[in-house]
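Sorry to interrupt, but I need a hand with the structure work. Could you write out one complete protein record for me, on any chain you like? Could you add the entry underneath, on a fresh line?
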Amino acid sequence: FLCSSAGDPPTAPLGNGNAPSLQPAEIHNPHEPLIVESPTIGYIDLDNASYTAPNTGGRDRILILTPLRDAAAYLDRYFRLLSELTYMHQFIDLAFLVGDSKDDTLKVLQDEVKRLQAPSGLFRFHSVTIIQKDFGDDLSQTVEERHSLQAQGTRRKGIGRARNYLLYAALKPEHRWVYWRDVDIVEHPTTVIEDLMKHNRDIIVP
């Protein structure tokens, strides 16, 4: 560090007119440089983000999201269809939001996930996240009442809230695509992920 004499402003030249020129004083800082390495500070550059894992032929990371409510009866078929997907499972993350269920959806889901992700499992996915969040929705789950015109305002608002909560909680910078999947799907092409990705659209509905 260099400084001028104490009586001069910082911008004043060292020395003036007839006065002898003052040599700048040298001050040594005995402290080591302070390096901030706080685990609470993160930086993500999405402009240069890489969504593919090395040595995988350019495989993109996929996030499959499914909100669940009173869905215990559908989960066996849901996971059976997921297991048939041809896209490499190690590049797929699953996330579920269980909310306002009156049946044993959460328990059945936990049992299915434990079976699916067992070390000896043949169809394991990269990761599975289960989120439990009740929104106080007591709308009937019968087909007739769910799809009645009078229920659509409340129902759609609840669905949107659950989907937003699930997306914000599960989405990571490494995910290239998000696949919203209903729990009551009864059939699908096993190549559905590849079929959607090949169109390379920001939003696509099958």
Q: What stands out?
A: The CA atoms of residues 3 and 9 lie 10 Å apart. The helical segments are 75-83, 105-116, 143-146, 152-170, 192-197. The mean pLDDT is 79. The first helix runs from residue 75 to 83.
